[in-house]
Amino acid sequence: PSGLVWLRRDLRSHDHAALHQALRQCQRVWCVFVFDTDILQPLLERGLQADRRVEFIHESLIDLDEQLRALGRSNGTEGVGLLVCHGRAIEQIPRLAAQLGVQAVYANHDHEPAALARDAQVRGALAHEGVLLHTYKDQVVFERHEILNQSGHAFTVFTPYKKAWLQSLTPSHTQPHPVERFADALAPCPPGLATGVPPLEALGFVPSNLRELKIRTGSRGALALLEDFLARIEHYGQTRDFPALKGPSYLSVHLRFGTLSIRQAVRLAHDLHQQGVAGASTWLSELIWREFYQQILAHFPHVAERAFKPVYDRIRWEHGKTAQAHFAAWCAGQTGYPLVDAAMHQLNQSGYMHNRLRMVAASFLCKDLGLDWRWGERYFADHLIDFDLAANNGGWQWCASSGCDAQPYFRIFNPVLQSEKFDPQGKFIRRYLPPLASLPDAQLHAPWRASAHDLAAAGVALGRNYPAPLVDHFEARALTLERYAVARTET
Ligand code: FAD
């Protein structure tokens, strides 16, 4: 038999569940990626021609195509490579399957609601032609039905979930799904089809600043980042909360697009955790948070639109002109709160935001500006290079207190104290907010409290080269407690 491997958020050619299965089950295997116009067209229509994610995928596919060619050559087969289509996946996959005459299409599970709907359609169209769609677990170590509480229900609190997750983990869960030794089955591109990645421009996109940012793409990029991180993982627990330090791994985009295998990441982290490396235990916990939110989205898909806890849907968020203006200021990093603004500049300039700052910026949107968390969630979804529906939604609902196991609604981050605590010397703020660079450390976190003399000496003119604060935190806090009164019945 012959098979077609359809790559989606698993852009690597090693330790790959679907590819492994196809190579073992078929004599001839081809690999395809579809630039899906159902996903890309709406971006283009909204003017997002320079999208870092599309470029990240594009660069990673070039890497993947080379890897497949090398795998073919190592087995004496010339002409192996990646097939790349541009069109609607629901049409392209059945069309290509028919053209190649395969008996089955192989893919890895994707549990996002839109992906489930797409896959159901593809499965139906393929079945019509007598072609099967086989899908496998690859994106997570444990899927939603694998970690359940004693009554057989989903966990909605992280700590017991993590405990059960760790207890269930055996070496077999993180064993690689090898590709190389089965690579003989990789078939050359048949006549009439071409392998290789078309230029970005042919897809309607233009380069973003991905290269300038030196973001490493493809599985080669992922491995380089992983190595770099492993050399400092022991300090992760102490450094991870300070945005001016190189603390976290920066691997989120690679986990998002599968240029890094989650099994490899968990295996390494778990080994070090067992050796007593505290930083590795903390990092492993973060990888478990990733799976926690994935299973929340899979079990409770309503969270994609509504609060996990329905009582929070009754909150009356600010709306109208002032709310719109506040939202625009938040997006542009113009709130007058330096840490929040620096965070938004980091997002806008690089597509990445440090985890601590995601919490601070999100909390500020909901609890200082009184705006609906979905507005911020949407903005992050458009701008984060590592955007992942489950993690982003989980993070936003945590900050808005509407999520499972969320921050209690009456715990409200003080953006100035967060700034003093996590960027004490203002290194991060100064990097992103040059107009404030000359303010002394003590005044940098709340410039409106500085004396006129200090402001003038530092060249800061509030309302001119840096905004005055949009709201007073303490007034906003009181309003938020009132706004959240609807939730009091719940606690
Ligand atoms: P590291 O600290 O090195 O963590 C390692 C990995 O663990 C990450 O790459 C990620 O895959 C996972 N992880 C870490 N923290 C979390 C978490 N809280 N929830 C789920 N997974 C986690 N993460 C995304 O991958 N995509 C998103 O769209 C996203 N949106 C977020 C929105 C908000 C409001 C908040 C508070 C958090 C969000 N996160 C999101 C989680 C977290 O901020 C990022 O995963 C992290 O900052 C990525 O950087 P890193 O790879 O250097 O992380």
Automatic annotation (TrEMBL):
**A Gene Ontology biological process annotation?**
photoreactive repair
| Details of cofactor binding | Binds 1 FAD per subunit.
The keyword Nucleotide-binding is annotated on this UniProt entry: no
- List, alphabetically, the InterPro entries matched: Crypto/Photolyase_FAD-like_sf (IPR036134), Crypto/Photolyase_N_sf (IPR036155), Cryptochr/Photolyase_FAD-bd (IPR005101), Cryptochrome/DNA_photolyase_1 (IPR002081), DNA_photolyase_1_CS_C (IPR018394), DNA_photolyase_N (IPR006050), Rossmann-like_a/b/a_fold (IPR014729)
Record's keyword annotation contains Flavoprotein: yes
User: Entry's Gene3D superfamilies?
Assistant: 1.25.40.80, DNA Cyclobutane Dipyrimidine Photolyase, subunit A, domain 3, HUPs
Specify the enzyme's EC class, one word.
lyase
Site (Electron transfer via tryptophanyl radical) found at W317, W373, W396
UniProt keyword terms in alphabetical order: Chromophore, FAD, Flavoprotein, Lyase
Q: Give the catalysed reaction(s), semicolon-separated.
A: cyclobutadipyrimidine (in DNA) = 2 pyrimidine residues (in DNA)
Q: Where is the Photolyase/cryptochrome alpha/beta domain?
A: 1-141
Tell me which cofactor or cofactors this protein depends on: (6R)-5,10-methylene-5,6,7,8-tetrahydrofolate; FAD
UniProt binding sites for FAD: Y236, W283, E286, L287, I288, W289, R290, E291, F292, Y293, D386, F387, D388
Q: Which GO terms describe its molecular function?
A: deoxyribodipyrimidine photo-lyase activity; DNA binding; FAD binding
EC number, UniProt record: 4.1.99.3
PROSITE patterns per UniProt: DNA_PHOTOLYASES_1_2, PHR_CRY_ALPHA_BETA
Sequence similarity = Belongs to the DNA photolyase family.
UniProt protein name: Deoxyribodipyrimidine photo-lyase
Species this protein is from: Serpentinimonas maccroryi
Q: What is the lineage of its organism?
A: Bacteria, Pseudomonadati, Pseudomonadota, Betaproteobacteria, Burkholderiales
